[in-house]
Design brief:
With 609 residues, this protein is of the alpha/beta class. The chain is built from 15 helices and 26 strands. The protein has a 6-stranded mixed sheet, with helices on both faces. The protein has a 6-stranded mixed sheet with strand order 15-24-23-17-21-20. Strands 16-26-25-22-18-19 form a 6-stranded antiparallel sheet.
């Protein structure tokens, strides 16, 4: 088995010197709580690059092996192999006191955590590192960040894709080269702390039955209930709460766990109840009924308006970004158009510019100018950075030493004035990205993805402060409200009940939300993605937040934006994916709020204890 060479020796560099365990698993599916590990390979080595151990085995999952056409592991081939609990202790010994390394590491980690939990054992992994996240920081000139593309770029031969043993050998070569690039660029490694995931609180709750009808609005005195009305219940009830909810759902009502201005009825037997729901109902003018009055109306619920059913989205080409939402609503022309002249390239069409120094406002204005001229604003030094703009004070930035050693061109702010356009045959054009760079408020029509495809919205920032930043998502209906508390995806509930929206942690300064548009409930009209700071720091302290939208975890980004210009804000609405008719769209938002996450959560209809 080919292993990592001694060229990886970083034992003299404390920030990079770790004991490593490279892991690859093949599985029967994609959902760790449901599917099983079919094979595993582990390779360990020390900070000096010397191998210290390896292990590989097939695993009998005791279930259907799933997509055999991908991994080639048939039930007959797996028969007679050990079960996971029979090899778990040996695997645990290799992982103990080492950083787990994998390509898309959260996937491998989650599967191992669930397998160890089924075996009644603790997964001995305190930290993990994802080579996918590491290469997002390095930004090599590849078409995407798949294992195959990175192997080709770094010169690592790959013989058997989706074979755990060969994938681990390939991973070793990619990790060696990626780590060398991280050292060259002085990049911080995206190490992620890994508390045990065996706690049952991590398991998503059973999906709430989606209401099939649109919300008709508040209940007016003397009027009947209508299917789709949002109701909530507070306090003690004469019949069992579960029965009351079941009868309401069966009648076509939308039972909520909280009260908002869009709630039609609150059921409360105690007119003087002081619960949070009751107080909110009074504040919002929501009709309050006792149980008997509600049951009388429940006997004659009128028909509602079903949610629109959209045909599956046909593949479409991504549309150019629009500066505002209004500009993006112009109907498309249906008549054939004559070919338009090719637009002249913008001055920075192939440049990725890192701004160093200056006040927060000055740096934000400079990054906005880079985007205005067609370039991309970088927030970290990476292999894709082509130019540096040095504002006052930038000379003392610790990255300047690395910039000098790399020989990157350094410009003063005047360079952002009126630079000459690059020639079309500029060497910067080689391998140029097709990613759309969106301004704040920019809109993009989303092309359809293949079956089982997921959009990944990644957010990353420079490590300017030690504050914790949480990326969250809300699945919203036509009232801009969640249908249930579980439509709020955050670190404490990292997956929606139906699995359509998930939170992934890729490193201390990057997190991502994945969205499967095809499995969203019919009431879903918008997914809002936000970031919130835990503590007293503000986004003015953090600086720019870069967002990127990719059609898969390792694909080239479809769109990206640098969200900047915040000062005192503690919560930042990053982006939204929303439906207009049958078409899904993406908008880079960048709207900040001085309040914390709690106020945003309440605004979307979730009660916070």
């Amino acid at each position: 088995m080919t292993t990592v060479s001694a060229a990886l020796d970083v034992s003299c560099l404390p920030d990079y010197a770790h004991n490593w365990a490279l892991v690859d698993v093949e599985t029967s599916g994609l959902i760790a709580r449901r599917d099983r590990v079919l094979s595993i390979a582990v390779l360990t080595f020390g900070p000096d690059g010397a191998p210290t151990g390896d292990f590989t085995t097939l695993v009998n999952p005791g279930c259907d092996p799933g997509p055999v056409h991908i991994h080639g592991l048939t039930a007959e081939r797996l028969q007679g192999s050990p079960t996971f609990d029979q090899v778990a202790e040996r695997i645990g010994a290799l992982l103990q006191d080492r950083v787990l390394v994998a390509h898309n590491a959260q996937f491998d980690y989650d599967f191992l955590a669930h397998e160890f939990a089924r075996a009644g054992l603790h997964l001995p992994v305190a930290r993990r590192l994802c080579t996918l996240a590491l290469n997002r920081r390095v930004e090599p000139p590849t078409a995407d960040l798949s294992l195959a593309s990175l192997a080709a770029h770094y010169g690592v031969p790959q013989t058997r894709a989706h074979d755990a043993l060969d994938d681990t050998r390939v991973l070793a070569g990619i990790f060696r080269a990626s780590l060398a690039e991280a050292v060259r660029l002085d990049l911080q490694l995206p190490l992620v702390s890994c508390p045990p995931r065996q706690d049952p609180r991590f398991a998503p709750k059973l999906p709430k039955t989606p209401c099939a009808y649109r919300n008709p609005g508040p209940l007016k005195p003397g009027n009947p209930l209508v299917q789709g009305m949002k109701i909530a219940v507070t306090g003690e009830t004469e019949i069992a709460r579960i029965e009351l909810v079941a009868r309401s759902v069966a009648s076509g009502l939308n039972v909520m766990t909280s009260v908002s201005r869009h709630t039609s009825v609150l059921v409360a037997n105690d007119a003087n109840a002081l619960s949070a729901k009751a107080r909110r109902a009074v504040a919002e003018g929501v009709t309050v009924l006792d149980e008997n009055a509600f049951l009388a109306l429940l006997a004659d619920v009128r028909p509602g308006t079903p949610h629109e059913k959209h045909a599956p989205q046909a593949p479409v080409a991504a549309q150019p970004p629009a500066a505002t939402a209004a500009a993006a609503t112009v109907p498309r022309q249906t008549e054939p158009r004559q070919a338009e002249p090719r637009p002249a390239p913008k001055p920075f069409g192939r440049r990725r510019v890192l701004v160093l120094g200056g006040t927060h406002e000055e740096a934000a204005a400079s990054r906005a100018r880079v985007v205005e001229m067609g370039g991309a604003a970088a927030i970290n030094l990476s292999a894709s950075v082509t130019d540096i703009v040095l504002l006052p004070g930038g000379e003392s930035d610790r990255r300047m030493a690395r910039v000098t050693s790399l020989g990157l061109p350094v410009h003063d702010p005047a360079w952002l004035g009126t630079p000459a356009p690059e020639p079309v045959d500029s060497p910067l054009g080689a391998g140029a990205s097709t990613t759309e760079v969106l301004p704040r408020g920019g809109v993009l029509d989303l092309p359809a993805l293949p079956t089982a495809g997921r959009w990944h919205l990644g957010a990353s920032w420079a490590r300017q402060t030690d504050c914790e930043i949480d990326v969250v998502a809300f699945v919203l209906d036509e009232d801009e409200q969640v249908s249930c508390d579980e439509d709020f995806v955050f670190y404490g509930a990292p997956e929606s009940p139906d699995g359509a929206v998930r939170l992934l942690c890729d490193g201390p300064t990057e997190q991502s939300i994945t969205i499967d548009l095809a499995t969203l409930p019919p009431a879903a009209r918008r997914i809002a993605i936000a970031a919130a700071i835990d503590g007293t720091a503000t986004f003015g302290d953090v600086g720019a937040v870069q967002i990127s939208l990719t059609p898969g975890n390792d694909a080239q980004a479809t769109a990206q934006a640098a969200l900047d210009g915040t000062t005192s804000e503690r919560t930042l609405l990053l982006a939204e994916i929303y439906r207009r008719g049958a078409q899904w769209r993406f908008r880079a938002v960048g709207q900040g709020y001085d309040h914390g996450l709690e106020a945003l959560v309440r605004g979307y209809g979730i009660e916070v204890a």
